[in-house]
Amino acid sequence: MSFSDVSRALAQPVRFRVLARYLAQIGLVMIVLRIPPILVAWQSADWSFMQAQLFNMLVLLTICWPLAHLSVPAEIRNNEVMVITALSFVLAALLEAVPLATAGLNGIDALFEAISGVTTTGLSTMTHLQDYSTSLLFSRAWMQWYGGLGVVIFSIALLLLDRSLSVQRLIISDSSETRDILGNARSHSLKLLLLYSALTIFIIGVLWLAGLSAFSAVTYALSGISTGGFSISDTSLAAIDSRWVQGLVAMSGFLGAVSLPFYYRFGRNGIKELVSNPETLALPVIILAVIGLLFLCADANAGDTMARLDYAVIMGLSAQTTTGFACVDVSALNDASKLSLIFSMLIGGSMGSTAGGIKILRFLIVLRLLQFFIERTALPTHAVLAKRLAGDKLEADEIERVLLLILIFIATVLCSWLPFLVMGYPPLDALFEVVSACSTTGLSAGISRVELEPLLKIVLMVDMLLGRVEFLAFLVFLYPRTWFKIGNNS
């Protein structure tokens, strides 16, 4: 019997009752998440926006309450976790698009904004933000905040499907030693929620004490810790007069780009955890390298040395953490600066963080493999050299997954780039926009706007979704055997 025959015989399609049950439970959580935007809309007397949110709550409750009580098996399959992950972001975006449409956005722009929000990307077609209500501006930041928490929880749920180095870096309790995916995800979720909320409150306090208004401090903190980057001004951080405060907002993205489980483990293990965690150590090193590149590449007419350094620090932090705040007009940067930012966005932040990109751990694994092959050439042919990263053995299947994901990431960027080239957009600007979407960064070279062709908006929306669930979940979603039993069972 061939591998293909075995695969067909053993394949287990998803169970629709399981999908309905757990998606409905996520829907009930979404009802609770409607409360803060409703309260802000009520406080600001934005009745139409409030009615749209209440309508969402009623529809969700009607659909999700009976489905959430379906009887399903206790054990959930790997492909079901993947499908639930992919669908949860799609359904959340569709839900969020309704209030945005009532606020004056057309259908595709409302969906674009909602997908950008729940995937914590930050690309936007909205302009004249100062003309929109405080309830809508808060809702944009709020959807990024809960989207960021969902990213962390679901990434851990996906990673708990294996016992790789990635999982070892995300363990925060002994419960992950079992194969109970849902039990592990739930036990981790509460701890992560407390950590995430504590960091958010801390950032709000710091920004408020630094001089921002209460509303600005809250919205920037929600968008910052989620590495989302939605701003309440068309000019993003440039609207903040103080460079010091701009830097503090950018630093909120740094806190979000560090793996949330790392904070828990650091509190338990102290400095030993930092020393043994190459990914967390590499993040500030890479940021400093990007800042140096941006400083060297800055135009001579960009200002004095301090102005160029300020720009390099803020943009370097924003790109590497995939937060997407900007203190300058990205479309006006020179090609060298744009290429530096593209490289930074591609790498992204840490595993188990709200940041996007390929992730630093995978980047380090690739560098370690290159080092291994170079070292191998100097050894006798019979010598055995174990592949390790910071003392942890790299298993063959993990290396395979890392290389596969990077290959898919690059292929997605290239395929998405092509339609922009066909429609006549500048090649480097188009590449910048696509990489920003795939890495869920949100920095824009000026292409994302209301006038952008609908087809290209769809391309960017797909890129944001693919980048947020790291591609593999959507590949599982699209795979026919995920849904149907194909072939002979004998």
From TrEMBL:
The chain crosses the membrane at residues 22-42, 54-74, 81-101, 142-161, 192-211, 217-240, 247-266, 281-299, 311-333, 339-361, 402-422, 458-479. It comes from the Bacteria. One of its GO terms (biological process) is metal ion transport. One of its GO terms (molecular function) is monoatomic cation transmembrane transporter activity. It is found in: Cell membrane. Pfam families: TrkH. InterPro entries: Cat_transpt. GO terms for cellular component: plasma membrane. Keywords: Cell membrane, Ion transport, Membrane, Transmembrane, Transmembrane helix, Transport. It is a multi-pass membrane protein. Belongs to the TrkH potassium transport family. This is Cation transporter. It comes from Methylomonas lenta.
